[in-house]
Amino acid sequence: MNEFKYSLDKSSKKFICPNCGKRRFVRYINKITSDYLEETYGRCDRETSCGYHNSPKQNECITIFNIETINLIPDFIDPLLVKQSLKKYCNNNFAKFLYKHFAKDEVENCIAKYNIGTSKHWEGATVFWQINQTQKVHTGKIILFDENTGKRVKIPFPHINWVHKKINKDKFNLKQCLFGLHLVKTRVANLLQTSIAIVESEKTAIIMSLFIPEYLWMATGSKQNLKLQLLEPIKKENIVVYPDKGEFADWNKKVIELQKQGFKIKCSSIVENSEFETGIDLADIYFAVKNNTNKNKVEIVLSETEKKIQRLSKINPSIISLIETFDLIDEKGSGIRII
Predict the structure, then answer these.
(1) Residue 218 and residue 256: Cα distance in Å, rounded?
(2) Which end of the chain is more exposed for a tag (fewer CB within 10 A), N or C?
(3) Same-domain pairing of 226 and 308
(4) Could you report the per-residue pLDDT of 141-158, keeping only the tens digit for each?
């Protein structure tokens, strides 16, 4: 099927329009990488009063294959490249950000656990390696973060690249996997029954693994990657997904389809139901609470079951952590919230 390489994002997510300043801006995405283009490329929905539309130049036509029906043999990256990247964390902006907010030993263990690498592609850049359950390396995503804010560097352009592109591998057949998927093998070997929590960004998965280390955190790498092909290796696991605010409807729809195919999966609405701005993720909320800011931004309404849970928590406080983290449901299928 032939389509244009760049297209307007079809999700409900909106950004601030660079022309009128209203949050009605739909950005262009790259259909191959699922990444957003530069922030100026997009269209304002306020057509009558704004009408801003900046489309990317040289938007060539590409062929989109249905990977469910075409059996492409994936290529893999030499694991030696992963090993070579596991150093120079004093020059890694993301690592430096983590050290500012968490204990040194916790960060070191997390870096080793997720094979967080350092790249020379940009000074201070980080590599998030995609390693599957059999320890094969699918690729690595190179991102440059601000060491003080932990945010991606987007000026003068979004600093995101891929290892398989950087090493100039010809005709590389990329088949992505979940970030953190390699940890399933370690967990099984240790006979652990940890539930799996999935977020969108690798950064969020890393940060949440530091906040809530009792659970196994993974990331899709993009909002479009919550799909059967990536989740198939963990089909028998208990899974909870945490979409960024503004993405709940899309992810919940996909979760319902996955449930029909036998997945033990649910979609948490804890981020969506908060009063934070669109685009916020679970790690942002945890940092806000940690820093004692925006304490009243998450609206929680207690049911009778939730009130009982509150009373039980005085006897066993660990129940609070369990319910808050995985947005567990009661016998009627309703969510359980804790104040």
Answers:
(1) 19
(2) N
(3) yes
(4) 999 999 999 999 988 888
